[in-house]
Specification:
Elements lengths: L5 E4 L3 H13 L7 E2 L2 H10 L4 E5 L8 H11 L4 E5 L4 H9 L4 E4 L4 H34 L3 E6 L4 E4 L1 H7 L9 H4 L1 E4 L5 E4 L5 E12 L5 E10 L1 H49 L8 H31 L8 E4 H18 L3 E6 L4 E4 L1 H17 L7 E9 L2 E8 L21 H7 L5 H11 L3 E7 L3 E9 L5
Helix pairs in contact: 2-3, 8-9, 9-13, 10-11, 11-13
């Protein structure tokens, strides 16, 4: 077991030697004895010690009290005073240095031993208390919640960094809680803290009373936390719920209204068809033009209503896909047959590059709808006459990749980000020239996503565009 080391500071050689012998007999180590304060400081700097026994009156530039003050502040070593003087003035000076005990000359070994052991025990307990305070302080300082400790009169004793940050006050010790913690509670019971710089934050808080060992109230601890982010998230969640509900009501209203329009519209298209085909008799040139305009407008309106119905069903989650294994070659060829005549009128050449072995699990009708929307746009936005549309399909890992490329008018860079938005037409002049509902690409994107895929576009304005989408070869069950 390591012996306790004691430094003796005594300028009377006989007393110092007697003390050294007695201490060693008691089992303590006394590596050296010194006779002045300067020597004591140098010895501590060089070798350190566990305890200092020092005469209050020693030779040199510093007396024992001045030396003890340096030892306490620099080395944190307990000091026991050895003195033959007991006058009040000297004792008052000595108390300031917070000594760990006094040994009055002449002394006996029992008194010496008890005083040393008490000093060592007190030093050990103080060090433990200091460590506990440091750990406690580090814990309080690292906690994200604000902590304010008050006395029984609600005067601030302590604020951790989080509390100082939230209140905007660096030093509030001695102030009343009301000066520091300016809280406003609304009719819903929600608390808002007004900070020192005038900002407000949502907080939740709790008070805990402090009591002494006899149960007497002697203070309060306030713990509070900033819940502004949580409140913003809750507000955003409620707003999203309201928007989703409004969107659902809108979709249901559109769907119901659109259904009401379809029946009379079919009659208009049907009767105008009869007029155009002259099934009810000959028409003059003006009447024939009117009938064709009615028929064309009716079909355009029906296409718009069908797009709206599709979109509302998708948004309401009421569209159901029927997955089956299909041949991609057959599906694309069937779709091309629907657009071939329209492309031919504009002298547009259709070319394909399709993996003949490619089979995927998909809803064939919806996949055709996606391809037809892309092909129809490619034809619609081709240059005045001529051009090429290329349709490609192949397998990439566990995904099937489709692309539709054209040599048309292209898309401006600033229009790319709103391309798939609902009812979004990129240019009013183009819209008037080419028509369209502004829903085709929005529906296309949603149908691709319902298949578990995604769609992208690349374009050079005035030259070409390529729409590419990928979907899984096999759907997850």
């Amino acid at each position: 077991m390591t012996k306790v080391r004691i430094l003796v500071v005594e300028d009377e050689r006989i007393v110092a030697e007697d003390l050294r012998v007695r201490l060693q007999k008691m089992g303590y180590a006394v590596p050296s004895t010194v006779s002045s304060g300067d020597e004591a400081v140098r010895e501590l700097e060089k070798n350190g010690t566990d305890l200092v026994i020092m005469d209050i009156v020693i030779k040199g530039g510093m007396d024992g009290i001045e030396t003890a003050d340096i030892i306490r502040s620099r080395f944190d070593v307990p000091v026991v005073y050895l003195t033959a003087y007991t006058d009040e003035e000297m004792l008052n000076r000595a108390r300031i240095t917070e000594p760990f005990g006094y040994i009055v000359k002449p002394f006996d070994e029992r008194e010496l031993h008890i005083t040393i052991e008490m000093a060592l025990y007190k030093s050990k307990m103080e060090n433990k208390l200091k460590e506990a305070k440091e750990r406690f302080s580090a814990t309080l300082n690292s906690i994200g919640d604000g902590i304010i400790a008050m006395d029984s009169g609600r005067r601030i004793l302590f604020m951790n960094p989080a509390a100082r940050s939230m209140t905007g006050l660096n030093d509030a010790r001695g102030k009343s809680l009301e000066e520091v913690y300016n809280i406003i509670t609304d009719e819903n019971g929600e608390s808002t803290l007004v900070t020192g710089n005038g900002k407000t934050i949502f907080v939740e808080h709790a008070y805990t009373p402090l009591k002494d060992s006899r149960g007497k109230f002697n203070g309060l601890v306030l713990v509070f936390r900033d819940i502004s982010e949580r409140k913003r998230a809750e507000k955003l969640h409620l707003e999203n719920m309201r928007l989703n509900y409004a969107n659902k009501i809108k979709s249901e209203f559109i769907a119901n209204t659109s259904h009401e329009l379809v029946t009379p519209l079919n009659f208009i298209i049907g009767f105008s068809d009869l007029l155009v085909r002259k099934a009810v008799g000959e028409l003059n040139e003006t009447q024939e033009r009117y009938a064709e305009n009615i028929n064309k407008s009716g079909r355009h309106l029906l296409a718009l209503i069908n797009d709206i119905l599709d979109l509302s069903r998708i948004e309401a989650g009421k569209i159901e896909l029927f997955f089956e294994k299909i041949s991609v070659t057959e599906t694309i060829n069937d779709t091309i047959s629907l657009i071939k005549e329209k492309a031919g009128k504009h002298n547009i050449h259709l070319i394909t590059d399709i993996d003949p072995e490619l089979e995927i699990e998909a809803d064939e009708q919806r996949l055709k709808q996606v391809l037809l929307n892309l092909l129809d746009n490619a034809v619609k936005f081709s240059k005045k006459e001529g051009g090429t549309i290329a349709i490609k399909a192949g397998k990439e890992g566990d995904m099937a990749r489709f692309s539709v490329s054209d040599t048309g008018i292209g898309i401006r860079e600033e229009d790319m980000k709103k391309l798939f938005n609902q009812f979004e037409q990129l240019d009013s002049g183009i819209s008037k020239k080419y028509g369209g509902t502004g829903l085709g690409l929005a529906i296309t994107k949603k149908l691709v996503e319902l298949h578990g895929g995604k769609i992208t576009v690349e374009s050079r304005y005035g030259e070409c565009s390529t729409f590419t989408f990928i979907i899984p070869v096999t759907q997850k069950r």
